[in-house]
Amino acid sequence: MCNLYRMSKPAQDAAALFDVPLQAGGNAGEEVYPGYPGFVVAEGQMRTMHWGFPLSLKGKSGQMLKPKPVNNARTDKLATPFWKNSFVERRCLIPLTAWAEAEGARGAKTRSWLSMPDGEVFTAAGIWRQSDEWGDVYSMVMTDAAGTARQLHTRMPVLLSPQVRSTWMAGSPAEAYELCRPFPGELVLERTDQPWAASRRG
Fold first, then answer.
1. In terms of C-beta density within 10 A (0-12 exposed, 13-18 middle, 19 or more buried), how is residue 115 classed?
2. pLDDT level of residue 2 (50, 70, 90 thresholds)
């Protein structure tokens, strides 16, 4: 599952690739973490939203705890109440240049990055909604891992080629669901010695 991704290209350049305007005042870090802002293409523009749908939790004595950002939406769960309305009505595109998975022994995990061979911006499928807690929020859609990605995890983001992005955004739910399949192309795997724990902020 993806809990860290990178968008290393300038937002203005990425917006031009998608042929949409960049929302004024939008800002996000190069590395995007659950609960933090990232750029998405939605409603005809590139804009920032917080990564993760808020999930309300209760403590042992019944008190409400700080919401947890649910940043991954599994394909096989899109028909459940938590995700269904967003999948049917509010799909978005998530631009990124790589995503990371944790590898190694517990307590000593490191970051391993997956990207396209050309190093350019590519697209993950997303869904979004409004929330009382954090404003507009989005989640990345996950499917079974294939090829190189399977070395790191059993699941990977749904990756969309330029030819099918419009179907994801404007097609029927059935047409969009057909796109939720493992990516058949080549990916580049970069293993690093960066501690995975360094990705956790706040």
1. buried
2. confident
